[in-house]
Design the sequence.
């Protein structure tokens, strides 16, 4: 099991450029999440998905879009990057609620800098 | 809404010192409680968890007890090592109308000096 993987690990963008971050998990988890981590602010939820083909907004969704076309993949898109989106992005996954297993498993993170 | 509060860091200790990192929460129901650890340059890893009142989670010498009466889940370790230097996050998980809600505290940075 690779667990949760993220690509790329590092990226530098210019303001206005677009990019997609890929998250993949091989644990057959129903739920997947995208967070951003900024100094002194902990983790903030951007978007999440409760299953293939479904997505929902989290705490800070503006400027981001997501897609969950396959159960194992969760993509985070930035259509027009802004310096305020400079952050470390973490993907996580978990089992469906009601299974009695509610732990989140995290990827290693993507460090994004927008100039 | 649900929230998690942690003691402000950074916390700096000498090796073999006793560690306590305070965590309190607010929730509408009966959440599960977690401590995650983040080592430099890595993602978060589950350290321990507790799913109901009076449960004690433990791992790698760390312990935390789910105290419903004080809505707390304080992390403790009797003798810290340099390798414990990391950022520690308290978190809760609770069912809500949209599925499963995970809420993280802001994190507490621990530095252990030899």
Sequence:
């Amino acid at each position: 099991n690779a667990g949760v993987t993220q690509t790329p690990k590092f990226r530098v963008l210019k303001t206005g450029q677009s990019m997609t971050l890929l998250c993949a998990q091989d644990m057959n988890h129903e739920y997947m999440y995208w967070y951003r981590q900024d100094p002194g602010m902990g983790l903030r939820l951007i978007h999440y998905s409760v299953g293939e083909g479904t997505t929902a907004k989290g705490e800070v969704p503006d400027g981001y879009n997501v897609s969950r076309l396959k159960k194992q993949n969760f993509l985070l898109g930035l259509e027009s990057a802004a310096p305020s989106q400079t952050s470390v992005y973490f993907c996580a996954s978990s089992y469906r609620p009601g299974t009695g297993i509610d732990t989140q498993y995290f990827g290693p993170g993507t460090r994004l800098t927008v100039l | 809404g649900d929230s998690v509060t942690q003691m402000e860091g950074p916390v700096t200790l000498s090796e073999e010192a006793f560690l306590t990192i305070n965590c309190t929460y607010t929730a509408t129901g009966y959440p599960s409680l977690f401590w995650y650890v983040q080592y430099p340059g890595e993602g978060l890893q589950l350290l321990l968890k507790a799913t109901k009142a009076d449960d004690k989670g433990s791992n790698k010498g760390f312990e935390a007890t789910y105290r419903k009466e004080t809505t707390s889940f304080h992390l403790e370790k009797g003798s810290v090592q340099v390798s414990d230097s990391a950022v520690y996050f308290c978190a809760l998980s609770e069912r809500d109308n949209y599925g499963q809600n995970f809420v993280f505290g802001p994190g507490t940075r621990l530095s252990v000096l030899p």
Observations:
- The CA atoms of residues 4 and 25 of chain B lie 4 Å apart.
